[in-house]
Structures are given as C-alpha cells and as structure tokens.
Amino acid sequence: MGRKWNNIKDKKASKDANTSRIYAKFGREIYVAARQGEPDPESNRALKVVLERAKTYSVPKAIIDRAIEKAKGNSEESYDELRYEGFGPNGSMVIVDALTNNVNRTAAEVRSAFNKNGGNMGVSGSVAYMFTETAVIGLEGKTADEALEILMEADVEVRDIIEEDEAVIVYAEPDQFHAVQEAFINAGIAEFTVAELTMLAQSDVTLSGDAQAQFEKMIDALEDLEDVQQVYHNVDSGE
C-alpha cells in the first residue's frame, strides 16, 4: 500500500502550498459537520474527524472556532454534499466530493474542469466501486512493529501498517479511525502527520509525458473550484 500514501502525501503538499484556499475549505467543512449534530466533537463523530484532519494541515484555531460558532448561531446557510465521478486520460479515475449551496453551478463547474482537460464526467457509480473508503493515520518516532504492538495491546485491528519516509502509516477500516488514534495517544503520541478518511483506489495506473501533464492540470482545475472539498484518484505518483 506504499504507493497509496504517496498520493495522499502529494495532495497534502499541494494543499499546504495554498493555505488560504485550504483554510476556507476546512471552514466550510467544519461548519457543515457541526450543523449535522451537536457542535461538540466529543459527541459529533463527523466533526471530530474533520477537526483531526484540520490539525494535520495546521488550520488556525480562529478559523475552527469561527466555523463552530457560526454553526451554533442562527445562520440559515446550508450546503448539499455531492459526489461526482469521472475519467481522465489512459484509464485514470477520479472522485470529486463537494459541498455546495448551488447544485447546478457546481455540477457545471466540475463537468467543465473534466471536459477542458481531457476528461469526462461519468454517472454515479461508474468509478466509486474501484475505490475503498479507508482511515489513514500517520505518525513518526515509532517503527511499524512498535505501532503494531501498541494497536494489539489496545485490541485495535487494522488493514495494514507500513514504514515510509521515516513515518509509520496505518490503514484501517473507517470506523476504526478514532480507536487507532486513541491507542496511539494513550501510548504518548501527541501529533499525527496524517489523519484522513479517504478513498483509496483498489489498483493504480501510471501516466507519463503528455498524459501525466494533462491529468495534473485536470486535478488542479478540480481542486481550484470553491465548492470542491476532496479529489481522489487512482494515478500513482511514481515516487
């Protein structure tokens, strides 16, 4: 599963380079999660997941607090959660998750980003079956064996554990996201390099030359859209 982590790492590095954009996206996601239940992460699983992700992107506390306070208030602002699926060059597959207050606008913008960059938008279900929702937790300062021992002592089952780039990456079922984190926190680990609920491709494709450049341009166009929160794909970063 090592290559899977490369895709997440590349996406994170790209977003780290566009802090204002990622902060705005997190503000919207936190607001929506807080509105779906109690605005308290201890009783709202969706909110807790978003806040854990926000930590790994160093989202300022002021932005987090502002979004939660807005959710507590009388704001009538509402968003629809949408998922689009599509194809890029040479068998590449893409999933786009969005939060929008204008479904028609977002659908048109996503379709345009695909079409103008050598891709095309598919119907619901045309791509998602090739991906698996997965919890991914990354940490430093431990070996894979040490991490596995911590998880076994906490009676937490995971799919896989790898060592890569001086980090340990744990892949687990989505419903084990908090259990994995809590096991490590109880073992004295205070920070995580990644904490994501993501969609991992069951198999990867490798692009090169013009196809790779075109694909990257398409992904950039999708991620630049204001309503788009997450973009997942099956293209191996090649690292």
UniProtKB/TrEMBL annotation:
* Alphabetical list of SUPFAM superfamilies matching this protein: YebC-like
Output the Gene Ontology terms for molecular function.
Answer: DNA binding
Name the major location.
cytoplasm
Subcellular location, record wording? Cytoplasm
Q: Which residues form the signal peptide?
A: none
Q: Which UniProt keywords apply?
A: Cytoplasm, DNA-binding, Transcription, Transcription regulation
Which residue ranges does the record assign to the TACO1/YebC-like second and third domain? Answer: 79-235
- Residues of the TACO1/YebC-like N-terminal domain: 3-74
Q: Which NCBIfam families match?
A: PRK00110.1, PRK12378.1, YebC/PmpR family DNA-binding transcriptional regulator
Q: Which family does it belong to?
A: Belongs to the TACO1 family. YeeN subfamily.
Which named protein is this? Answer: Probable transcriptional regulatory protein VF724_00275
Q: Organism, per UniProt?
A: Ferviditalea candida
